[in-house]
Amino acid sequence: MKSIQTFKLAVGLVVVATCMSAWAQTSAPVSASVTAASGSATAPVGRKANRALRRQVYNAIAKQKDISAGNISVVAKDGAVTLSGTVEDASQVGRVAEIARGVPGVTSLTNKLTVEKPFGGM
């Protein structure tokens, strides 16, 4: 009876050890790929880098006195920037995109800006 319990305990320990070993192995390639990708100077990687790039793009837009940046949303992910929201004039749509493209670290840009329609106007 004791030998059966000992055998069950040994099998259980082997299963636990195998699971822990497999878990440790699956996390190694992820950290290696992050390390390899973070060596690239053209595309920022990680939440901090995404937030920093987003702030840099937004600040570059906000420096322009004739553009109301309060209605513009900036999303950055690994160097890809998406602009959305509204601007007051059609000419500002392209201008805001060019400002965003000029920020170091921006690798691609999706421009979803639209022209703000005045209240009561059609």
Automatic annotation (TrEMBL):
The keyword Electron transport does not apply. The keyword Glycoprotein does not apply. Residues 1-24 form the signal peptide. Keywords: Signal. Residues 49-117 form the BON domain. SMART domains: BON. This is BON domain-containing protein. It comes from Paraburkholderia fynbosensis.
